[in-house]
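Limitations
The structure tokens in this dataset are predictions for the assembled complex, not deposited experimental models. Users should treat interface geometry with appropriate caution, especially where small molecules or nucleic acid strands are included. An illustrative entry is reproduced here so readers can see what is and is not provided.
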Amino acid sequence: MKKSKESLEKAYEPKKHEDDIYKKWESSGFFNPDKLPGKRKNPFTISMPPPNATGTLHLGHASMLAIQDILIRYNRLQGKKTLWVPGTDHASIATQNRVEKLIAEDGKTRHDLGRTQFLQEVEDFVEDSRDTIRNQIRKMGSSCDWTREAYTLSPTLTKVVQETFITMHNDGIIYRGDRIVNWCPRCASTLANDEVKHKTTKGNYYYFKYGPITIGTARPETKFLDKTIIVHPEDKRYKDLVGKTLTIPWMNGDIVAHVIADTAADMEEGTGAMTITPAHSFIDFELAQKHNLPIVQIINEKGELTGHAGEFAGQNANQAREKIVEKMKREGLVEKINTEYEHNLSVCYLCDTPVEPLISKQWFISVDTKAVEWKGKKQSLKEIALDVVKSNDISIVPNRFNKTYFHWIENLHDWCISRQIWFGHRIPVWYNEKEETEISISKPTKEGTWKQDPDTLDTWFSSGQWTFSTLLESPKDNETLTQWKKRSKDVKTFHPTNVLETGYDILFFWIARMILMTTYGMKEIPFETVYLHGMVRDKQGRKMSKSLGNGIDPLDMIKKYGTDALRLSLIVGATPGNDSRLYEEKIAGYRNFVNKLWNISRFIITSVQKPKIITKTPKPTTLSDEWILSQLHFTIEKVTNHLEAFELSAAAETLREFTWNELADWYLEIAKIEKDPSHSPPVGGSDGAGKDDILLYILTSLLKLWHPFTPFVTERIWNELSGSTKNEDLLIVESWPENKKHKPVTDFKTIQNIIIAIRTARAELQVEASNIIDAVITAKPAQQKLITKNQNLFEKLARVTLSNKDYPQKGHVIQESGVTITLHVPVNKEKTKKEIEKLEKYIKALKNKLSNASFIDNAPQSIVQKEQEKLAEAENALQKLKALS
RNA sequence: GGGUCCGUAGCUCAGUUGGUUAGAGCGCUUCGUUGACAUCGAAGAGGUCAGAGGUUCGAAUCCCCUCGGACCCACCA
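Predicted assembly:
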């Protein structure tokens, strides 16, 4: 940061300052709560949702960083011990896939390299590309503590994850079992429910004869061993069949089938009867468990048919479908085929391969086992997750998402946490040749050949522990998880964190998992408030995507308009939980605002005798002084309240309104007049120094108020004001303006209104701007005095000379704020007539309301009174207009 | 099938617990530039608050329905 008045360029050039300012902040150490000046007791903590280590900054990141930085900077100015923990995510599947693609260019697969070498390649790739995202986070002005930067696959996190696995296993919450899972044959991995996408596809729908009933299916290749018919218990058609055993001619010869009654059968659908395929359908699997039916695997992990398919064994299931149907046709089992069948095909969210539901051995977290001590009693993870939000320990902004959250938790099934991916946290389980199992981080010392479970953990298992694992000190050997957590100072100081800010799209993926894992691991909530932001869309409301080419690169925008402008464009007009639209004109608009702020400051700094910081409210000497101070104090109160309520957009809008419309458009113009001795009215006591103090006080306060939103430009101007290059004089560690008493200055409003009314009349009557006209103002004595006292304002701002001459018959008359103004210009009869009509209509409506007995009876006294005042004022105005026109 | 959100000026959006002659920014029209800023200033045009009904003295705001749009969850044997 340079300093000297010459360096205040005419238009603010963000590129000239931003990098230097960021470096200054970072080297000051103030991003680190331990190095903040002053006594700071209360902590304020945010864990940054970690962007992918190998990714690049997009608008989603930009808006998340802007929001979090605003909260952090505001709370830092409020004197809190502020910590924002940055980090990156190893993004297991995504990163592994990228490296697999890279090595595929050399014609290699991960299996060619082997686990160790492949993982080395991945780590190298991550290390090479991680600086990109780090520097992009800096570009946004993020005031996060880089000395505490975390990584989801760091040694610390790995240790936490493995220890947690072991503890949960000991508590009986983690178990291994056969379950039906979503399986991607291409990735050779299970997928979580939310990693499965649905695609509408057209295909064949087959109707087969199955003994006494007809069954319909889109997947004949799974039905070789369907041996159970389910009918609804109240279905009269099948009443006699329930419980019977039937021999039925089927795909590979006769089979023996049983009939079972269950409400799962829909009487309205098809024939009202169905057969089930437990190993390849979620619902059928549940039914099979409920009725204790055999579960037989027809399709294997490679997507091939097993021995149960007889002659089709070994063939790809999907490809064999038509051959199987051909055979069934020959056997006379096909009733009809609907070729226009539309259904939702489940596909892998990463590679679009159709998902096979199949049975496999996986690790699970039980959400229903009551094994966790919470609020004095043993509860299940599900119960705790519901309780913390219901009892308001955690509040979600906006709170309509509570409903969605509850619904999701209530329907939560056991969570499959094993993934057949190499890049990730390895499951700490070992097996030997005798099929014994040991749960431990390192290889068991007992005799035998021990092999570690090849799987890794679902990435949400580790990110679920993000808020506290990132605060732990480096692990030591031979200490328990509890001991480790206890000795870590940061955990004690900064956990639970205050706010978790993220997009509503990962409420389930992440927020819910953090609540589950942290209430378990820490016996406390991970955060107090969840702030959910919406998605950033293009001007038409479409998602931004590469294929549409409608994406906006935040870094381009920073280059063009500056970080402050980009931040504002992402914040203003965006409300929590709702999507917002971004387009370049919007960013340009905020660039204009930042420039306005710059020029306001430049004006104040260059017009005062000596720029300096003033934090004590100076004494007002003129009415305008009184008014602007009152407006400033009102603004401070409003902005503070908005920020406390997480209403960032409203806070910024309140500030913009004050800055541009009140300060720049009115007060600065008036200050020019009132500072000029040649225009000095008989106001007494008004001198330049008093004005200087007020201007500097306002600027001091304004820079603090804007700092969370536009950190760069405010820090740059602050430097000019403070004249200091010391770290402790940086704006980032200043203190937030206090709330001060204030009351509206209505006298000033009156003057403003009269000036506006005269301007309007001048414009409508097309009076040349250079033409200073005479005006006669008649008013009650008190108002008359006020007007005379401020006559220089009318002369300069409304370009009229106040006069005593009396020529009401010839002048153009305006009614405003109970005052009659006669302008020495020809009467505009038409204009006056219109004015009268408008007033008459308004009066009629008011009279109507006031003559309504039920309004008088029912409405509160204050409302009635207000209406009466309105009427009186309007009638007064009408009377004068009529008399003088 | 269950649920959520949205529909206010040409465009993007505010409108807090029902009480304004319904607001802002951009765009548009007219006028304006002798040192804070043309990335600017002054003034203006433009809305039956998606539609119908209800509650109320009073509805953009609360309730119900209809239409239109976005999204989430579940799922079609």
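Some entries come with short summary sentences. For this one: The first strand of chain A starts at residue 43 and ends at 47.
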